[in-house]
Amino acid sequence: MNLPLTIAMPAEASAAPQTYRLLIDGKFVDARDGRTLERNSPGHGFTVSRYAQAGAAEVEAAVQAAQKAFETGPWPRMKAGERAAILLKAADLIEARLEEIARLDVLESGKPIVQARGEIGGAVDIWRYAAALARTLHGETYANLGDAMLGVVLREPIGVVSIITPWNFPFLIVSQKLPFALAAGCTAVVKPSEMTSASTFVLGDILMQAGLPDGVVNILAGLGADVGAPMVAHPLVEMVSFTGSTRVGKMTMASAANALKKVSMELGGKNGQIVFPDADLEAAADAAVFGGFFNAGECCNAGSRLIVHEAIADDFLGAVKALTARVTVGDPLDDSTKVGAMISSEHLAKVTGYVAAAANDGSSVYSGGKQIASSAGQYLDPTILRGVTEDMAIAREEVFGPVLSVLTFGSIEEALRIANNTPYGLSAGVWSASIDTCMSVARNVRSGTVWVNTFMEGYPELPFGGYKQSGLGRELGKRAVEDYTEEKTIQFHRGQRTGWWVG
Ligand code: NAD
């Protein structure tokens, strides 16, 4: 790595920051008290966006608008085919504005542009998949209850849904929730992270253009305590769909429990990739680097623990280190960049604090470990730590940075024990040529996704979510729309009721 990095200033740096207003009841409006929030590009250091900052009054207005749209508006009542047509139109409009949306996510989050384009393309695919599910959502009938009874189970939209998203995949994560809620006929209040709200406001613009009725989707920028918390507690909200840290997820669940609201939780991860000696070690080494450093490690699915068989550890780690040296860290807007900027200086300090504590605990820095000096923004060298043991904080807690912790094992039982020895259970990977080994790991690892001889692929068709403290419920997959419904049982009785109680 040649230090320091020189970061070129993009055209946006010499223009006034782009401003975004709250979307409430079909109109873009300022906050009543005129407050705003600013976001600096973490990769470049200039102010890129300014959003109207919501508070309690805007939460109330947005929830009321969503409730009105649900109670009396056309959205829950229209044919699924008509809803699907609007979702498909939205998908086309997202695709048409892909470059603009990707650039906003890059400027606000620091992620590399090539990766961001892939995320927005993936989001387009999800919107189309949700549109298809809108048309196949159905209940059940029971004609086997005797001649006089027909049982019908309806799937009805649950009502107003509060959707709260994090900063690491701003557009992709809202797209894992909102189109499915809409496909079911729900209305929503959406709060993106206060650091990366811009692309969600563009989505609001797209939805209005696609013909979504007023009040069906309302979007608020603001802080978690001011906006997220009342969005969860509001009595008219029936369901909370949250993606973020396990810490805030627990608070959110506790608040939702007061009114027994349905919750969907996508939370943190501490995922292990287990590498056996008989694996395709070249492919596994590349996946180890990808798993550790993709999105600068700021990824719930990061393969932040590399669990390697002791017989191959030295050679394999040599290959991982050599590949890591070829990972380009730099300007997020440069097409050749693989690792961009860290989200904030506070977060960077937290990550480097973990590295320092791990060294104190007895592990050693095998590669990287240092903040990279740059002409603007904050960057961290991809870091590999060797000699990590299960009891260390670095092996158990979510670091959320480009830090790969290496642990070694001697037997499959030991590998599984290490993999499962964390409070999280989001995902895992196994690398081996043996079907027996792969199946043993896949069946016994306690996580919502297991990748076998691959890592971090995703498809709208496949459910995603966590075991243990990584979450509750699943997103995506063919049941994703059902998650935003209630079941209603209707019993139709034919002829005179028999078996009277009093007689
Ligand atoms: P965070 O928990 O700090 O914030 C997430 C969202 O919650 C933000 O919009 C924030 O403003 C809001 N919030 C904060 N306090 C709140 C409160 N009291 N009530 C309601 N809302 C509140 O998380 P983050 O730092 O933005 O994101 C990183 C975390 O997200 C990591 O832990 C990561 O693993 C997790 N994540 C999980 C998945 C998944 O699918 N499992 C995906 C992406 C990120």
From TrEMBL:
Database matches in InterPro entries: Ald_DH/histidinol_DH (IPR016161), Ald_DH_C (IPR016163), Ald_DH_CS_CYS (IPR016160), Ald_DH_N (IPR016162), Aldehyde_DH_dom (IPR015590)
Gene3D superfamilies (alphabetical): Aldehyde Dehydrogenase, Chain A, domain 1, Aldehyde Dehydrogenase, Chain A, domain 2
GO molecular function, one term: betaine-aldehyde dehydrogenase (NAD+) activity
Keyword annotations from UniProtKB, A to Z: Oxidation, Oxidoreductase, Potassium
Aldehyde dehydrogenase domain location: 29-490
Keyword field contains Oxidoreductase: yes
Catalytic EC class: oxidoreductase
Keyword tRNA processing attributed: no
EC identifiers of the protein: 1.2.1.8
One Pfam assignment: Aldedh
Similarity comment: Belongs to the aldehyde dehydrogenase family.
The name this protein goes by in its record: Betaine aldehyde dehydrogenase
Organism: Mesorhizobium prunaredense
Lineage start: Bacteria, Pseudomonadati, Pseudomonadota, Alphaproteobacteria, Hyphomicrobiales
